[in-house]
Specification:
The protein is α+β, with helices and mostly antiparallel strands. It has 3 domains: 100 residues, Rossmann fold; 70 residues, ATP-grasp fold, A domain (Dna Ligase, domain 1), CATH 3.30.1490.20; 242 residues, D-amino Acid Aminotransferase, Chain A, domain 1 (2-Layer Sandwich). The strands form 5 sheets. The chain has an 8-stranded antiparallel β-sheet with strand order 13-12-9-10-11-14-19-17, with helices on both faces. The protein has a 5-stranded parallel β-sheet with strand order 3-2-1-4-5. Strands 7-6-8 form a 3-stranded antiparallel β-sheet, covered by helices on one side. The termini are far apart. The mean pLDDT is 96.
Length: 449
């Protein structure tokens, strides 16, 4: 096992990784920007290093500064968390070249899955079902028209190197195609420095289902079940469940085995999440995230497994030490992403937290770096807390979630707690009858009423 791990991230995920390391007897190094010196992950780490200014490019995306911090603190390994450099093949490669352990997949696999076109072709070759669409980048309108006709409208023009809904355009008829193609390429180039786009079939009412996997260096890959991430706004996840109200155990086992067999053949190592659109009983691959997910706690709640602990063990060369039949799924868990945003217009709300009282009780977990007096910075993502609730079944989980949201106090800034309180009282959500468009429609109805 590693003696010392540098955590190349901030906020709740840096704190989460710090806790797992300490429970395993591993020393930690927190890196931080100039405005994060008083952050909770910095306070609780064994050592800390300031790596730059407030902007992410000066600090949390500053590869030379992070590598230097790892070298001067004699860190054995780096955990990238999620976001920032977690899916940068360049960063992983540089870490590897410096003889430092990278707590994640290989740079080769990060690069492969970071290219939406290449990853789609590869998983299709490995037997994972994919959304019908183009198999290479679309460079001209004639090719786009041909592909669209072959799969049928509506279609989706998507950035190959994209994420978060950027570089994505829905096209319902041929007359819209040329302008949509131009907009998608322009957005993709501006956001990712790569204007390559591709086309796939647009599904009208799918759910977003993802499979959590973990692989070791013995070509053993296991799945830890599914998460339903269909509640999204502007392609950003808002609330996640494990398991999905839409799946049964046979469907989970079938898609889980398909994914594990494919990734074992690929030789995939460490944590990853294979994401699908699910409609009418069919799964369609959309992408693979080669990192720890924001919503990993709901999987931990229903399996009893510590995913970060397993990441550390596997990265240190240990085998998984379990088989698929050893993984048991019990109960139901829901995670609410609490953002520092106005719950009506979603305008970011940085500022000082004047009062802070997280909920507690049986089956309640709060992953957050907030405390009374903490200042939420305007320079980073607005996620400030994750409320995770477990129940023996979905109904018990929902009742407990309602109680904990009522208890949760974050004063001095706006938060999206009221949005979650609204979501969980909607009949469609209570009945588990929602898709990836449901939340945006709810918000639209609210704004026009």
């Amino acid at each position: 096992m590693f003696d010392k791990v540098l955590i190349a991230n901030r906020g709740e995920i840096a704190l989460r990784i710090n806790r797992a390391c300490h429970e395993m007897g591993v020393n930690t190094v927190a890196v931080h920007s100039t405005v994060d010196a008083d952050a909770m992950h910095v306070r609780l780490a064994d050592e800390s290093v300031c790596i730059g200014g407030a902007s992410a490019t000066e600090s949390y995306l500053n590869i030379p500064a992070i590598i230097t911090a790892a070298v001067v603190t004699n860190s054995d390994a780096i955990h990238p968390g999620y976001g920032f450099l977690s899916e940068s093949a360049k960063f992983a490669s540089i870490v590897e070249e410096h003889g430092i352990g990278f707590i994640g997949p290989t740079s080769e696999h990060i690069a492969l899955m970071g290219d939406k076109i290449a990853s789609k072709a590869k998983v299709k070759e490995l037997g994972i079902p994919v959304v019908p669409g183009s198999e290479e980048a679309i460079n001209d309108i004639e090719t786009a028209i041909s592909v669209a006709k072959s799969i049928g409208y509506p279609i989706l023009v998507k950035a190959s190197a994209g994420g978060g809904g950027r570089g994505m355009q829905i096209v319902r008829e041929q007359a819209e195609l040329e302008s949509a193609l131009s907009r998608a390429r322009s957005e993709a180039g501006a956001a990712f420095g790569n204007d390559a786009v591709y086309i796939e079939k647009f599904l009208e009412r799918p759910r977003h289902i993802e499979i959590q996997v973990m692989g070791d260096n013995k070509k053993t890959v296991l799945h830890f079940g599914e998460r339903d991430c269909s509640l999204q706004r502007r392609h950003q996840k808002v609330l996640e469940e494990a398991g999905s109200p839409a799946l049964n155990a046979d469907e989970r086992d079938t898609i889980g085995k398909t994914v594990c067999d494919a990734l074992a053949e690929l030789g995939y190592q460490n944590a990853g999440t294979v994401e699908f659109l699910y409609q009418d009983g069919c799964f369609y691959f959309i992408e693979m995230n080669t990192r720890l997910q924001v919503e990993h706690p709901v999987t931990e709640m229903v399996t009893g497994l510590d995913i970060v602990r397993e990441q550390l063990r596997v990265a240190a060369g240990a085998p998984l030490g379990m088989s698929q039949k050893d993984i048991n799924f019990s109960g139901h868990a829901i995670e609410c992403r609490i953002n520092a945003e106005n719950p009506i217009n979603f305008i970011p709300s940085p500022g000082q937290v004047t009062d802070y009282h997280p909920p507690g009780g049986l089956g309640v977990r709060v992953d957050s770096g907030l405390y009374s007096g903490y200042r939420v910075q305007p320079y980073y993502d607005s996620l400030v807390s994750k409320l995770i609730v477990y129940g023996s079944n979905r109904n018990e989980c929902l009742m407990r979630l309602r109680r904990t949201l009522d208890e949760y106090v974050i004063g001095g800034i706006d938060s999206t707690i009221p949005l979650h309180q609204e979501i969980i009282t909607q009949p469609d959500f209570i009945n588990g009858e929602y898709d990836i468009h449901w939340l945006e429609k709810m918000v639209e109805r609210r704004s026009t009423s």
